[in-house]
Design goal:
The protein is of the alpha/beta class. The chain has 18 helices and 15 strands. It has a domain at 382-449 and 467-597 and 607-644 and 652-730: Kinesin (3-Layer(aba) Sandwich), CATH 3.40.850.10. The longest helix has 176 residues, at 206-381. The protein binds adenosine-5'-diphosphate and magnesium ion. Residues 497-498, 607-608, 637 line the site of magnesium ion. Its main location: cytoplasm. GO terms for molecular function: ATP binding; microtubule binding; microtubule motor activity.
């Protein structure tokens, strides 16, 4: 027990020591805590002081800002003052302008210009003032922004201060807590002392006491452990609070720096703004001053100008008044002048009218005269036309001087042709001459012209290359109206007769074109008329007439008088075929050719020795009136006109030549007689003229197309042909011609012989023609008569 007591005492001692150590530690800890809290308190104090300082700084800054506001107000008032001054100047200017306008209505434009310039300057000044004002407003805005920012910073500072106070409060609370704990801990060791004392006094109860003390010891130990833990926690709390303090301090530092920077920036900006403001105000002011000065100067100039303008105005007013007077007098003057002018004009018109009337009267008289002359001319010329057609030089003409061109034309007169014969130029005048370049069309048109107006061929000639068929058209169409028409192709063999009448397959001649024209004309009149076109083809060879469309082409046909006593001629047995199209015509032409070819060995030779006739009959019936018309178109390709047999032609060749000669002479006689309006026309002298009697007499129309070769070697034949043409065409008047009209036409051979004595060759008496009074026979010149006798003897 002693041992245990000792042990317990030892233990107690140890515990007491330990307690003492703990107590010491506690006090140390307490001291530390107190010092730390003191430190913190001092820190809080310094922070508070700083805060106060900053608040003071802020209030100072605010007061400074208030100062700039005052400056701004000052500027605004200055501005206002300037504006009012400007307004006053404007008013003055306007007043001046008004006065000017009242005083000087006729002022020249320099003043106006000055005024406008001044106005412009004024408006410029106003604009600048406006700009300055805008700048001021901008500065105001900036100041406002800065103030806002400052308020923000203050707010943030306040927040941080509140945070700091809170933290302080928390820390002091903790300090209190820990002090309380320490106090409680201080009270506990007295209990332990008491227990130990009891142990000392009551050793009897030692064991129990020991136990108790042991348990108590345990409890104490636990308590100590708890205390230790509490201490540890406290330490940790202290550490964390230290950390927080450090953080807070850093934050404060940061805020301070930021505040410093903001303050500096603000100061700088304020400075800059102030400078700018001052500069702007100075500039505006100086500019306004300068401009005001200029305005004043201008005003002075305007005033002096006004002074000089007044006299000018006076003279202008004077001028104006005099002009006004003149204008007042003007209408009277004008009226007078107008009246006199009117009188003059009406007189002139009267004069012109009388002259016109006189002229009209004269013109009418001239017209009548012209008509009379024209009628006379038509009567003289009759219904017969003679055209010449010169073919181009062809390959058949050969080469060298023999094939040279001997025919020339007159550029201005298309009726004239010149022939160079044996070095001498002979000129001929016909109704129209077609040069080699004339196309097939044109010849047709020439006959058209003949049909339309017999007296003015030349006028109808169109510019450009002549076209043959154009000249024939109207002649052909007059058949439809019931006229008889004859178209002859005359000339030596190879001169182009067949080419003109028949043409080639690709370039048809008058025959085909005439029929085509008839078809189209008949078609055009089909509404009122019924027409029938029929065709006969015949040949006269050696004075024998043969049907080329008949079954017996060799059969000789006779020409007989109609038994009805009408005096009309007809050919019994002559085939007449109805045609309705170009195809029909072509078939007929072909058939005629075949018939002609079968009866001879050499078609070319044969055709040049015979006359080929194409007789087109057009019968019309007017459906409404029942009127009937019959027109005949005779297209004749005559036999070659060249002289044969002079150098000993014999037999059939000579017979042919005689027949041809006879019939061509007879044709010439008939045409000449018709054209010179002789009483007797010798139709019966040949089969050809007898057959065509109907179509040559009365109001029939005849065209003789004289074909000519231009080659040098043909000139003597060409000369004969052209003489024939001229002879046919010529009209002789007076008593001499009256005699001559009875003369027979000289034969082709005679033409050459009597070259020197043309015009006085009388002929034998011709047998009387149907319906004509037999004329008194004339005298033949003895020379011609002897030639004729010779010829007849040889025939
Ligand atoms: P004719 O019938 O008078 O004997 P042709 O008509 O047979 O003469 O013509 C003889 C040649 O001349 C033919 O080859 C023909 O083609 C040609 N000829 C005639 N006239 C012309 C002309 N105007 N243009 C072109 N060639 C022509
Ligand atoms: Mg021929």
């Amino acid at each position: 027990v002693m041992a245990s007591v000792a042990h317990l005492q030892e233990e107690k001692l140890r515990l007491q020591e330990e307690l003492l150590g703990l107590q010491e530690k506690l006090t140390a800890q307490e001291n530390k805590e107190i010092s730390r809290s003191l430190q913190l308190q001092s820190q809080v104090e310094t922070l508070k002081a700083k805060l106060l300082e900053q608040a003071q700084e802020i209030s100072r800054l605010r007061s400074e800002l208030g100062g700039t506001d005052v400056e701004k107000d000052l500027l605004a008032t200055e501005n206002e003052r300037l504006r009012q001054e400007m307004k006053a100047r404007e008013g003055e200017l306007q007043e001046l302008r008004r006065q000017q306008q009242q005083q000087v209505p006729f002022q020249d434009c320099t003043h106006l210009q000055e005024n406008t310039e001044l106005q412009e300057q004024l408006s410029q000044l106003q604009q600048e003032a406006e700009e300055t004002r805008a700048k001021l407003a901008e500065l105001d805005l900036e100041v406002q922004q800065k103030t806002n920012r400052l308020a923000e910073v203050e707010l943030r500072l306040k927040d941080s201060l509140a945070e700091r106070a809170e933290e302080e409060e928390r820390l002091s609370r903790r300090l209190r807590d820990s002090q309380e704990t320490i106090a409680s801990l201080k009270s506990q060791p007295q209990q332990i002392k008491y227990i130990i004392k009891t142990v000392e006094v009551e050793s009897a109860k030692a064991k129990q006491a020991l136990c108790e003390s042991q348990s108590r010891n345990q409890y104490l130990q636990e308590q100590v452990g708890m205390q230790r833990q509490v201490l540890k926690e406290m330490e940790q709390q202290l550490q964390s609070s230290q950390k927080t303090v450090a953080q807070l301090r850093a934050q404060i530092m940061m805020y301070e720096a930021e505040l410093e920077r903001a303050h500096g920036q603000m100061l700088e900006e304020m400075q800059a703004m102030e400078e700018e403001k001052n500069r702007a105000i100075e500039e505006a002011f100086s500019r306004a001053q300068v401009e005001m000065k200029a305005v004043h100067e201008n005003l002075a100039g305007v005033r002096t100008n006004l002074l000089t303008l007044q006299p000018a105005l006076r003279t202008l007013t004077h001028d104006y008044n005099s002009l006004k007077r003149q204008v007042r007098n003007f209408p009277l003057l004008l009226q007078e002048t107008l009246q006199s002018a009117r009188a003059e004009i009406s007189q002139a018109i009267e004069e012109v009218n009388t002259t016109n009337r006189e002229l009209l009267r004269k013109y009418r008289r001239e017209l009548q005269l012209r008509k009379k002359c024209h009628n006379e001319l038509v009567r003289l010329k009759g219904n017969i036309r003679v055209f010449g057609r010169v073919r181009p030089i062809t390959k058949e003409d050969g080469e060298g001087p023999e094939a040279a061109n001997a025919v020339t034309f007159d550029d201005d007169d298309d009726a004239v042709l010149h022939l160079l014969h044996k070095g001498k130029q002979v000129s001929f005048e016909l109704d129209k001459v077609f040069p080699p370049k004339a196309s097939q069309e044109e010849v047709g048109a020439a006959v058209h012209a003949v049909g339309m107006s017999w007296e003015c061929n030349h006028l109808l000639t169109l510019p450009g290359p002549p076209q043959v068929f154009q000249e024939v058209q109207a002649l052909v169409t007059s058949c439809i109206d019931g006229y008889n028409v004859c178209i002859f192709a005359y000339g030596q063999t190879g001169a182009g007769k067949t080419y003109t009448m028949e043409g080639t397959a690709t370039n048809p001649g008058i025959n085909q074109r005439a029929l085509q024209l008839l078809f189209s004309e008949v078609r055009g009149k089909a509404a009122d008329w019924d027409y029938a076109i029929s065709v006969s083809a015949a040949e006269i060879y050696n004075e024998a007439l043969r049907d080329l469309l008949g079954k017996e082409p060799q059969e000789k046909l006779e020409i007989k008088l109609c038994p009805d006593g009408s005096g009309q001629l007809y050919v019994p047995g002559l085939t007449e075929l109805r045609v309705q199209s170009v195809e029909d015509i072509n078939k007929i032409f072909e058939f005629g050719h075949v018939n002609r070819a079968t009866e001879c060995t050499n078609l070319n030779e044969h055709s040049s020795r015979s006359h080929a006739l194409l007789i087109v009959t057009v019968r019309g019936l007017d459906r409404s009136t029942g009127l009937r018309t019959t027109g005949k178109l005779n297209l004749v390709d005559l036999a070659g006109s060249e002289r044969v047999g002079r150098s000993g032609a014999e037999g059939s060749r000579l017979r042919e030549a005689q027949h041809i000669n006879k019939s061509l002479s007879a044709l010439g006689d008939v045409i000449y007689a018709l054209r010179s309006r002789q009483g007797h026309v010798p139709f019966r002298n040949s089969k050809l003229t007898y057959l065509l009697q109907d179509s040559l007499s009365g109001d029939s129309k005849t065209l003789m197309m004289v074909q000519v070769s231009p080659a040098e070697k043909n000139t003597s034949e060409t000369l004969c042909s052209l003489k024939f043409a001229e002879r046919v065409r010529s009209v002789e008047l007076g008593p001499v011609s009256r005699k001559a009209e009875l003369a027979s036409w000289p034969s082709h051979e005679q033409l050459e012989v009597t070259e020197a004595s043309l015009g006085d060759s009388p002929g034998t008496a011709a047998p009387p023609a149907r319906g004509h009074v037999s004329p008194v026979p004339g005298q033949l010149s003895s020379r011609v008569a002897s030639i004729r006798r010779k010829l007849q003897a040889s025939g």
